[in-house]
Amino acid sequence: MGILKNWENYKEDEVSYNPEVPIYSAKYQLKKSDYNVEQLRKRYNIPTKKSA
Fold this sequence. Notes:
alpha+beta, 1 helix, 2 strands
């Protein structure tokens, strides 16, 4: 799942595993101020959902 800071502090929303590949998939609800979100946004062009 990569190297993420404070990974153990995240509450799992949805986690799945495919034993045939193997691939893990996880969804987490994070805030924009989260360290890992800030690092990902520095490296990749990740759009945010803006309220209307």
